Amino acid sequence: MFRVQRAFTEIEGQVHGPGELAEITGLDDSTVHRILQSGVYDGTFAREGRGLYRLGSGAARLGLKALSHAPNTRVAHAVLEELREATDEGLVFLFALAPFGGARKQCLDMAVGDSDLSELGIGHRAFLEISQSLRTGAAGRAMLAHLPEVIQEAVMAEPTPEGAGPGAHRDNAALLRSLEDVRGRGVALDVEECAAGWHGCAAPVRWDGLIMGAVAVLKPKDSLPRWPDLAQAARQAAAGFGRAGRRGAWSAETASSY
Fold first, then answer.
1. Least enclosed by CB within 10 Å: which of 59, 81, 86, 232?
2. Alpha-carbon distance 136 to 140, whole Å?
3. pLDDT in tens, the chain (258 residues)
4. Which residues lie across from 47 on neighbouring strands?
5. 198: Cβ contacts below 8 Å, ≥ 6 apart
6. In degrees, to the nearest 5, what angle opens at C-alpha 206 toward C-alphas 200 and 208?
7. Residues whose CB is less than 8 angstroms from the CB of residue 171 and which lie 6 or more positions away in sequence, other chains included
8. Is residue 100 classed exposed, middle or buried when 0-12, 13-18 and 19+ CB atoms within 10 A define those classes?
9. What's the CA gap between 246 and 206, in Å, rounded?
10. Angstrom distances, CA of residue 145 to CA of 39, 84, 158, 191, 211
């Protein structure tokens, strides 16, 4: 079911037939047809003319159901605090794909100690705009690199947020190259993308093969750990969130070590 749902997001247009969806999912036509038929019954898919389908309102309900796989808030925050400690008090953030408002990310939680983020040298409104963009910052690119091409194109059609750091990818060709690098490394590296004088790293969080969010760390460039160490710490934290999604929600008693 989820593979067919995802296929709708990976090809242009809203209405598709079983053959087109089968090609994207790798399933045979008859299997896709059976999935579509069963999905019509519960509203996950809706029929649009003969042999054509679109996502139905039930798809949103399935998305809400996926929230039951989110880690317990308290335990999830403990993972962020561990990552902050592992990176010598870096500023640590957990981002997720925003459910509304187009291709955006939203900050779910952070571990920043006593910081009010003013040391980043940017205003609250500018930071909010920068942190929402998928083309700016390591967390955005860690997610964008694994999203369908149609979504990547939509993000590249947007301007780079005003107030972004000098290292932000303002050229789309450079942005595309950076996404290839993210897929190769498994992490995105941030060299003054969000703010001048700050470097960072982010790793994508996946549940059942789907990109759900990213864990990011920011550090002043003059106190940055070795890149490999920073990347490994981010990967470990992201893997912890991924395992939590596969197991189901963490309980408050679940150990937070990754």
1. 81
2. 6
3. 667 777 777 777 788 889 888 888 888 888 888 888 877 866 778 888 788 988 776 555 555 445 555 556 777 888 899 999 999 999 999 998 876 566 889 888 899 988 878 888 877 677 777 888 999 999 999 999 998 777 888 899 999 998 899 999 999 999 999 999 999 999 999 999 999 999 999 999 987 677 888 999 999 999 988 999 999 999 999 988 877 655 444 333 333 333
4. 53
5. 120, 165, 190, 192, 218, 219, 220, 221
6. 175
7. none
8. exposed
9. 9
10. 29, 24, 16, 17, 10
| Other Cβ atoms within 10 Å of 247 Cβ, number | 11
Q: What is the CA radius of gyration of the chain?
A: 19
Instruction: Read off the tokens for 96.
Output: 């997720």
Place of tokens 């710490």: 233
